Hints:
Radius of gyration: 29 Å
Distance between the termini: 70 Å
Largest sheet: 8 strands, mixed
Amino acid sequence: xxxxxxxxxxxQREAVQHxxxxxxILAGPGSGKTRVVTHRIAYMLESGVPPSQILALTFTNKxxxxxxxxxxALAPGRRVWVSTFHRFCARLLREYAPLVGLRENYTIYDTSxxxxxxxxxxxxxxxxxxxxxxxxxxxxxxxxxxxxITAETYQPRPGHPLGSVVAKVYPAYQAxxxxxxxxxxxxxxxxxxxxxxxxxxxxxxxxxxxxYILVDEYQDTNxxxxxxxxxxxxxxxxxxxxxxxxxxxxxxxxANLSNILEFEQDYPHVRVVRLEQNYRSTKxxxxxxxxxxxxxxxxxxxxxxxxxxxxxxxxxxTYFDQKTEAxxxxxxxxDDVRAGRRRxxxxxxxxxxxxxxxxxxxxxxxxxxxxxIVNGVEFYQRKEIKDVLAYLTLLNNPRDDVAFQRVINTxxxxxxxxxxxxxxxxATLKGKTLLEAARESGxxxxxxxxxxxxxxxxxxxxxxxxxxxxxxVEEILGNVLAETGYRDMLGTSENVEDQERLANVEELxxxxxEFDARHPGNGHLEEFLEESCLVNDTDAWEAADDRVTLMxxxxxxxxxFPVVFLIALxxxxxxxxxxxxxxxxxxxxxxxxxxxxxxAQEELSLSxxxxxxxxxxxxxxxxxxxxxxxxxEEMDCGEILPTKVEWDQTKSFDHDDESEWQSExxxxxxxxxxxxxxxxxxxDEFAFGxxxxxTGEGDEDRDSSQTGRARSPGSTPATIAPLATxxxLATxxxxxxxxxxxxxxxxxxPPEAFYQGMLVRHPAYGLxxxxxxxxxxxxxxxxxxxxxxAGQRSFVLQxxxxxxxxxx
DNA sequence: CGTAATGAAATTTTT
DNA sequence: TTTCATTACG
Length: 808
């Protein structure tokens, strides 16, 4: 038999062998979906489908990378296009930009850039939008775009005040983007969808080009994505989608469950394959999950089953308060780890909202449990990174007004709000971009002479940098850092935060260098920028670290852990108070819990607390309604919960206002005496404050190690070590400044030893500073600015007489 | 023009 | 409680 098919079950095999015609793979959690998809691609290639005709679309870069890697392992050397929806669209848009009114060097705005543009638009219109936040308006526009409603076609619902504001702002915002030759994330999809609709011949060409399309996580597609996929599958309806309606948790981002539920209507001759066998969880865990999700109406019936063991009962625990909850969990982990039953990385704690992580964090610290929080400040969202990238963006697309406004006074050049306002006014008047306006700052009457000169100086600097636009990215970036004074601004600062920022900028330099290595030749700035805003490095959850993982339910999708703690199952939190208004919202909350439960492989613990400190207030809580939807036979209830009816009764005794599910706790002395009761099934006593699990580091390091995306207690995460080193190097370099440096040893200096900002000595030109670097190994070049008046010169490092100036 | 101070608000966040 | 954004000062 074909070795590709051998490790597969009959159902999986059926899916893999289906090559032509539409295919719907309904894949339950832990059913080996990725394996099926990758094997199917390999099988198609084996059957003679040319790789260039295959397109696989995912939502996340992580998923795309994984799929690409696994296809590569199965079918080495075949280049199949595996990409996220957004990157795929971005690429197509480069080809067809003029058709939608853009230039091919268009900029992609991330969420905060878009927000800037939106704010400007609102200001400009001078409409009474005070009752709505830009955020609300942004959400509305995003919703419209996801539903293919353009600025021209947007119609507010009569009597809808927000709608009528959006009706005014949306066109202005869109005009602004177009004028800057920029798109937001939603536009990437919207433009391509429109393009395909309005240009039949383009559609036909692309349909022809991508004859075999696969879409992962199809339950998460929105109308725009649906339309694109559909448009590319008319002549060649070889469309295979995989997904699970029960795992759709991004409805609030525009995902439309109907896409997967009605797939069979869209493609009449579709083959439907159900992957219902679960290879991940115990029977009990799966049973709980299955029963819970049965309560949803909008779904497809599935018969989940597993050959795995029955496993231990799922624990359902009522805690006295959040601290008890957190401490008990920490203690349990400590016990298991000390007994050698588990390692820290086997555990995960999930919660509905990030704010709930705090109590857990504290407990983990107190008990000396190493942990990592997934999420945190994203690298590319940091101010310094955005600043520096904005320079590159402006070099790539000088029309980009958002980038212009970001960089014009960073570092401070004395060009403030007033000046900017005047430039803006001039630009609007003359129908020009801000950079064009700045270019003729002398002609702007309202501008003071002195200010006009400062602006002109900025433009001159920009023009100098422009000459480098086609050079390797690392080199451009290095020059930007030097010319703009950004490096000096951070380097000369005593501020610890600035030092950290500098380290981050160094990190970006490294990223640029790696990018250059991957893209030999010149003129790849645009691709670098695209990658920077479309690739999110947060994906890299460190499975390698032996730490307990703390994350939101949303973030847990796609992962699995031997032991899972699901905390704070309380009304108002899950289902979240803002998601109880409609049945659809409520069902999504239920799916969220379903996703969380099905991440657990061996042990699962569900818990809630009777009272919870939230937003500075301690509140009485009501157990989540979902708790009552799970079968008690499979569970071990440490403390018997009252049934929902009983609970409602008690509640009506205590409080007459039924509608208020949470009420502040009056200080009740009785409550305190009751508080010693350990709500857990009696596992162990707590050991508050005892550092049971010594990790070797003291109590310092409370919260400072925020640099990496994973905030960790105790030991500094390995990921930030190189940053620290870079920072040290940088500081060292600065401190050695000025002349009295010793002569370096005569031995050859390897090209890698040079870094940007480094002080060097040249036998003829004297002391200089490395401004930019590019290339690698024997090709590595440095641009050096000399103090002696020799100006800037470029050297091939391996042959150059440049020597580092040693710190004295 | 930059920073301190005050006040309102508070999910989830694949790109 | 914490975070943010706008506003009021120096």
